[in-house]
Write the structure tokens for this entry.
Amino acid sequence: MVCGLVWSLALSQHAIAQTGGRAQGRIEGKIVRQDGGAGVGGVTVVVEELGRAELTDADGTYAFQRVPPGTYTVLATLGPQSVRERVTVTGGVAAQVRSAVDWPPSVFESVTVTATTRLPSRLVEAPAAVTVLPQAEIAPQALHGQLPRLLASTPGVEIAQSGLYDFNLNSRGFNTYYNRHVLTRIDGRDPSIPLLLGYVDWASLSMPLDDVGQLEFVRGPGAALYGSGAFNGVLNVKTLNPRDSLGGKVRYTFGELDTQRVEFRQAVSLGGGWYLKGMGGHHRSGDFTRSRVDTVEYAPLTLPRDLVAPVLGKDRLTFGSVRLDKYAGPSYLLTFEGGTAHEEGPVTLSPVARTQTTDVDQPWFRVNVAHPRWNLLGYYNGYRLDASRNLTAGSLLFNRSSHVALEGQANQQFASARGRVIAGFEIGREAADTAGPDGVQTVFDRARSAKYGSIFGQVEYRLAERLNAVASARWDQSTLHDGRISPRGALVYTLAPFQTVRVTYGKAFQASNLTGYYLRFPVAPPVDLSGLEAALAPVTGGAPLGFRDVPILALGNENLRVERIDSAEVGYQGVIGGRLLLSASVYHNRLHDFVSNLLPQVGTTLGRLNPSYGPYQPPSSLSPQAAAAVTGTLQSVLPSFLFDAMSNDENGAPVFALLSFSNFGSATTTGVELGATYLLPRGWRAQGSYTGFHSSVRDITENPLLANTPEHQFAIGMSYDRDGILGAARFRWVSAFDWLAGTYAGAVPDYGVLDLNGSYAVTPRVSIGADVANALDNDHYEAFGGDLLGRRALVHVTYGW
């Protein structure tokens, strides 16, 4: 249905353009440098008579659609530089404009970003704190396949690596296992697991990273444009179009942890405006994971042990995708893309257990029709998990889940291009069934689903020559939460060409997911009380009590409210002398109604967390005397913590409601984020960043909450790119901090990590290279309970054509 809707819309719009627009023409242009013809990106191009504006792309190209016949003045500006051209447009013909400029070389000035406003904007004018990594910086790190590592040395980013592919990516505090405070989008698609909407399985995204055209990380609340999940930031990943990356390559990688990896990519033109891209690969390696049945790697007095050891000793990842693009006319791009990923072996850590993936498939599909003035996207994510092992409790997990979504947006300029407005919508449905082959649910009590919908809008207007204002708002509603409005406003003032300061204020929220509401998960082996039931038979008259194998459970809470955040920020972004890019942000956040990790249902000053599970009630068929005898016997036999947690499920059967979720408390956070990149002569580049963080938790007498965030982080790096040689060295240091997430509570000592990577073009088609993570082999853990991480050195050979 989604495919048909998108295709019909594309054809109808194309037909309208061909009929109603016959008398109109088009302006196509390109801005290049006189000294070599390279395109200049990020240039503002205005048709003065029409009051319409566009930004050039990375190749320096731009286009204006549906231009009436006539003669026009085209003004192109980049900071203080400008050039004017006269162009004559005739009906049905594209007028070509080529401007060769002798402007000073620009790198940072030309970088554009889309995630901050959902429309292209220059990086230095963005109304939010954002880091942009272009394809040239990403490609040298392509072989490790760990996408979050690309951001490890950038300002404001918190990465807690718990295993080879188990990452928790966050910004601005309150990180945790299965963190969902940063929304990830890949070409518009949300790749998160439907069961844990917002949590990304990074192993499934172990694609060739040199297929990423640009990576954008926006820090701070983004719910005004993206809704729930954009609580602390948005990670926007844009892959390369087939038309702009024709050719192919194959890469073989090997190295430590017995790593063997093969991946390929091919993009071709099919003619008639059709382009095809295919890529895939297979990865096999060991992991840092160790058995915790008999002993643990560190903190033996506090780190929980597992009941069973990992059943697989290797990680195996297989992935592939196919993309088909059709350029329908000069302005329309229709995309069909689908793929899948298969996993065996990776271990992930949740607040209550370690789980090893033994058989997971994640198919996905998207269809997108794009136009400069509107975009329509539909996608499907599937998730099939068979018999994955809960190492802590020894149980098996099953899951069949899906996420279907449709999103559209349109934009329009007004007031002679001084302003632009965006309006859009998003609807979707997620569903999960965790039944095993025997029909018994392993995570939920029954199959569950949720629907959601939203509308959003944004107005951007240049109040004065140097002052730009941006106001955004979004309304979200779901079967999991009531309607929420998320506003955001920003003022951006230009101090000098390519130097701006900004002030922003916004609100965001994070709803719990299906797991938070409906979890029913064993956290320990069941308790067999059948002997007690037999002993009570003379009192109960033999009435069944269901005491055989009473489960010990972590349970969802259907009474959860959404988490809320209010954020104020002041920031600076600027380019100095064409070689130095500086960024600085200072923020203050107020957070409310935290959704806790799993906490004891009873026994804390928070009281009974989950009102759906009250004190245990014997069967109603028993007499009051018999019921009192059963309760009294249980109280005398069971440990107090276990008796207090004993309850009944919705069918009346006895359970131990040991853990659940709750809302509680409030906190304030304050932080500073500094970043600098300096272009040195002869291909050298130096980078540095510092992130400072402080938090204060209030309104609770017993603190079950920690920010799980270091107070200080800094990173320095140096890279080189010249004459076919690429190389980089990055050092990251993180101060010690305390970690609390469910049953995992302990200190994370400070650690420093040195990463090295480089490559050399042996011939125009053959290159060799290496990537060394944690080159000094500093054994450390980045979240309490996570694996002890050591060095991993990889070598690759790549052949391209």
Notes: Confidence is low (pLDDT under 50) at residues 1-22. The radius of gyration is 28 Å. The first helix runs from residue 2 to 19. DSSP finds eight helices and 47 strands in the chain.
